[in-house]
Amino acid sequence: MTHLHLTQKRIPGRPGTAGAAQRQLHRSSAGPPPATSTHQNLDSWGCRGHSISFSSWIGMENEFPDEVLKSVFPLLDGKDLVFCMLVCRQWREIAKDDYFWKCICSRKWPSICKQPPSDANYQKLYLTFSKPQKMHHLPMPRLTFDDLVFYIDMWLDGSLIFSQAVSGCTLRAGLQCAPRGIPDIIVSHLNSIDCILMLEVEPKLSIPMGPGITISVLAHRKDSNKMACIINESTFDYIDSNASRALAYEYLRFSPRHPFISDIRAWMSLLFLYKGSNVIEVFGLELDFCDAARSETEILWLLDMLDWK
């Protein structure tokens, strides 16, 4: 961006007095004045792209009496007052008065002005706690799916009908070939960006649908040689006919190091196709933690916090 600078040029043959000076505006490649710390913080306030160019500063200094600015500033909100501090030195010095920030804080948090903290700095208070919250990304988990083995057992009326030890990587790979005829809602789910832990049941199980199907899931982590219970003989007592799946769940048990984490469930879905009036053909099992974790990183952090023994 080019900026306008005001210079004086002496007219030949005339004395160099102010009245004899001819003002000229010329274009310069020089940048605007150095950014203040307030200016640098605009991005964190969601004000990207709203900077004030130097050409807008010309003539602003002392254009308004201090009394006018001091009457207007208490009526502004915090973001507007931040912008005012960028206009010129006069505005910035006046806007530093903590009285204006106290007016803003009294509207945002009325109770804090009734019994303010000792040595309260209202400008700092507002700028600290009114910034838009940034999205914090989880660090890489210590646990990986390579470290995990899942032991899945399923019973029908007390008789074992499925038993398999599955590596975490196999469960993460999901279905290699979805059968024809599965509902569109399952197809959409399989194509979602969520982390899906799914096991293909092969050969497929043909069983009567009823409340007698139960499942257990244990997990072993090879990095510490410890075990954790994820699901303990839970019953598939909810059937979603539209999605052709039955659901069982168990509340996870977390390590005593995380005493404030609770009420997070592990869900196991039984994926099937109808083969008769009361007969289903199971083609897959899905494990998920949709109460709290959907991405791969979130699931691994959640599993890492379990009560491993």
Automatic annotation (TrEMBL):
Residues 1-43 are annotated as: Disordered. SMART domains: FBOX (SM00256). PROSITE patterns: FBOX. Residues 1-12 have a biased composition (Basic residues). It comes from the Eukaryota. Residues 58-104 form the F-box domain. InterPro entries: At5g39250-like, F-box-like_dom_sf, F-box_dom. Pfam families: F-box-like. This is F-box domain-containing protein. It comes from Paspalum notatum var. saurae.
